[in-house]
Amino acid sequence: MKLLECGIKNFRNVFDANICFTDGVNLIKGNNAQGKTTVLEAVYIFARGRSFRTNKEAEIINFESGTADIEILYEDRQSKNKMSAHYDKEEKRKLYKNGIQINRISEFIGNFRAVLFTPDHLSLIKSSASDRRLFLDIALSQIDPKYIIYSKKYNLLLAERNALLKDRYAEENTVLFETLAEQMAPVAAAITRMRKEYCGRLKKYVSEYFVQMTAGIEEAAVEYESCAADDTSLLLDEKLVTDLYYKKFTENTAREINFKGSLYGPQKDDIDIKLNGYSSRKYCSQGQQRSLAIALKLAEGDISADISGEYPVYLLDDISGELDSKRNAFFMSQLKQRQIIITSCNIKNTKKFDNVITMKNGGVVV
Ligand SMILES: Nc1ncnc2c1ncn2[C@@H]1O[C@H](COP(=O)(O)OP(=O)(O)OP(=O)(O)O)[C@@H](O)[C@H]1O
Ligand SMILES: [Mg+2]
Fold it and tell me: Which residue lies with its CA nearest to atom 12 of ligand 1?
């Protein structure tokens, strides 16, 4: 996968920019607040379907403008493609591929694939379970559109169930709870199976990277942790997990009415990452946690390549300043053969980069 060009209009502080990218490592440099991360944010919208910095679309439109437009030209193994997005403060955003409007997000995500790595990801190990689930959700959405469909369906049903749990007459709604449990259990089982499979793939790559990083001294393990069953080997059996979820959803309703929210389901799950057999969350040093985050991000690209046949584009937002030289060198050495777009405000020697883009006041310096 190769990003060739990106066009940006009235997107945050970028009024009008057209940026060309090359193979290898593309550096976007410039002082603070010049629009470097804004470029990555715009590009990553085509991979994730929305901004990685905000849930409110109006925020990305320039303060002085009513609309914003972004587009990319990229090349995959088959063809060159153009994707674009139009944002309007008054209307829902519109997405296009090769000039044709796409209404379903499941048809938009997965075309242009990218792995984003920001300083926030360096705390993926010690941050909340919801951040780790988000990591899985974003990665899986890009490799399988079915995952987006299941997630959307499950979230709608969950919202309905949570509203029902808060209802004053919740206790009287037994039939409705059962109907919802019947609908939710198979979708929850499908999401769990896909996440469990993904964690199996992560485990292979993360442990391999750790062997390389530590000359075989430290052993990393990744496992999907689900409230459906303690025995994780069962999680691939969708039929069995459907039954397990159905039981969880129907047998705990009284407690959940009291709690005023759902206590079980994939929205409660986590990734359990161990180093030398011990929980990385509880026992790892900050350096070890950062190494694990690097391994997870490298693995995300490897898995995407295994499934699609080509590496995604790597978008690195100012992470080199956060990593010590050894970890940075390891990370960059593993990214050979991949297209990288990296932002930085303090790189002096730009000779080692294949393409250098300088941003100033939201524009590209020519
Ligand atoms: N909707 C908006 N309209 C206009 N300007 C905005 C909008 N949203 C954010 N900005 C401004 O855009 C500027 C660029 O932000 P950006 O995060 O891209 O900078 P950066 O070059 O990555 O800086 P740093 O090196 O500090 O990370 C900031 O000054 C921010 O206040
Ligand atoms: Mg930035």
Answer: 13
Instruction: State which of 36, 41, 64 you would mutate to test the pocket of ligand 1, scoring each by most atoms of that ligand within 8 A of its C-beta.
Output: 36
12 in contact with ligand 1, CB cutoff 6 A: yes
Tell me: do 164 and 281 sit in the same domain: yes
Q: How far apart are CA 200 and CA 318, in angstroms?
A: 30
CATH number, domain at 366?
3.40.50.300
My answer on whether 158 and 259 are in the same domain is yes
| Phi/psi of residue 295, nearest 5 degrees | -60, -40
Q: Over the stretch 276-326, which tens digit does the pLDDT of each residue have? A: 999 999 999 998 999 999 999 999 999 999 999 999 999 999 988 888 888
- Same domain, yes or no, for 181 and 270? yes
Question: What predicted TM-score, i.e. pTM, was given to this entire model?
Answer: 0.95
Find out whether 281 and 126 touch, Cβ atoms under 8 Å: yes
Q: Which residue has the tokens 């300088």?
A: 358
Does the C-beta of 65 come closer than 6 Å to ligand 1? no
Chain segment 328-363, per-residue pLDDT in tens: 889 999 998 899 999 999 888 899 999 999 999 999
Q: How far is the CA of 15 from the centre of ligand 1 (A)?
A: 12
150: domain range? 128-306
Domain co-membership, 162 together with 302: yes
| 99 and 185 both lie in a single domain | no
**What is the Cα–Cα distance from 109 to 105, expressed in whole angstroms?**
6
